[in-house]
Design a protein that fits this description.
about 230 residues
């Protein structure tokens, strides 16, 4: 959010170049800000409800997929049911599905930004997408707040130890993790973001095999066709 606000004065310079109005700039920033608030509260709820960070990230990703593709998915289901003879094209259920698809499309930041970028945009800065995003953010925040004690009630329960290659690499990295020393930020980024030595070892093997495969294929092609 601070990065979005810092860029706002520079975005206003686009108005002086022509082709962009103040209403478009304000509408775009309101839409992006509302979407970021919604996404932050979705992440908050997922982090409260899920015991592991990886699970919370996966659930957040599923929400994003549903958020951006809900309208297309509902229209696809409606199309399949109507053309499959299971629903009447002018029936109540088909109409409800079409209205739901229109609602999800209007609430999507992608559709809103695409509409804002159209030449001659004269809509209001605060549209339906902004209101829907803020309402959704408030709903997710309320659920996270109200369910915090319930979600974290079993936080002291020891989880079962997972097995597999990835779990072994994680435990190997934890056992061989060094102390931060004087380079705190570099140590933190290397071990907790980059994955430490186990992940680097896997990357080395993967990229090494990929490079060797590319060179072997190129060598085979050159040997077959020659340098000319």
């Amino acid at each position: 959010m601070p990065l979005l606000l810092v860029q706002f004065p520079f975005t206003l310079l686009a108005i002086t170049l022509g082709g962009v109005t103040l209403g478009q700039v304000l509408a775009a920033y309101f839409s992006l800000a509302a979407y970021m608030i919604l996404l932050a509260n979705v992440g908050l709820l997922c982090s409260v409800a899920c015991r592991r960070g990886g699970t919370a990230s996966s659930v957040t990703l599923i929400f994003l997929i549903a958020y951006f593709f809900a309208a297309a998915g509902i229209r696809g289901v409606s199309f399949g049911l109507v053309h499959g003879g299971l629903l009447a094209g002018n029936g109540a259920i088909a109409g409800a599905l079409d209205r739901a698809a229109d609602w999800f499309q209007a609430a999507s930041v992608a559709d809103r930004v695409d509409d804002i970028m159209q030449t001659g945009f004269a809509g209001r800065p605060v549209g339906f997408q902004v209101i829907a995003s803020l309402a959704g953010a408030l709903l997710f925040f309320g659920i996270a707040w109200a369910g915090f004690d319930r979600f974290t009630r079993a936080s002291n329960v020891v989880a079962q130890r997972s097995t597999g290659l990835l779990a072994w690499l994680i435990r190997f990295g934890q056992r061989h993790r060094t102390r931060p020393g004087t380079h705190l930020m570099a140590w933190k980024e290397f071990h907790f973001v980059a994955g430490g030595m186990p992940v680097q070892f896997v990357k080395f093997l993967f990229y090494g095999l990929l490079t060797a495969t590319i060179f072997s294929v190129d060598f085979a092609v050159i040997s077959k066709n020659g340098f000319g």
